Amino acid sequence: MNDTYIPLGKYKEKSWYLVDAQGQTLGRLSTQIANLIQGKTQVSYTPGSDSKVYVVVVNADKIKVTGNKLKQKFYYTHTGKPGELKTRSLAELLSRFPYRVIELAVKRMLPNGFEKSDLAKRLRVYAGNEHPHKAQKPKEITFGK
What we know:
Blueprint: E1 15-20, H1 26-38, E2 53-58, H2 69-72, E3 74-78, E4 85-89, H3 90-96, H4 98-107, H5 115-120, E5 123-125, E6 139-141
Parallel strand pairs: 1-2, 1-6, 2-5
Antiparallel strand pairs: 3-4
């Protein structure tokens, strides 16, 4: 008989990664971060198990997008009241909240289900070069530019 190996979460250690977003394309970077958070880059990847991977992204304000997305891509928020739909362009969101663009892109690439909110909380995005997670000693990881 074949037995499936499922690693238990209590034996795994938390691993922290540091990603520099300077000069990276938004969509390509977001897919790689989503795969990293899910644990798909680990040898012991199992879809239902906890990967315990945390990702810190710095320089979120220096990300680039292709085409006319700065003017044509919109983000919508709604309070629930009639007539309360708010629309913001990507350029406006990048100028006011540069970290939120990467957070939303990665969160929307995660699989649906009860784990989606837990996995999204493991992403820490900062607009500048500084971050408060130096005590975790994150490993720097670079994706192809």
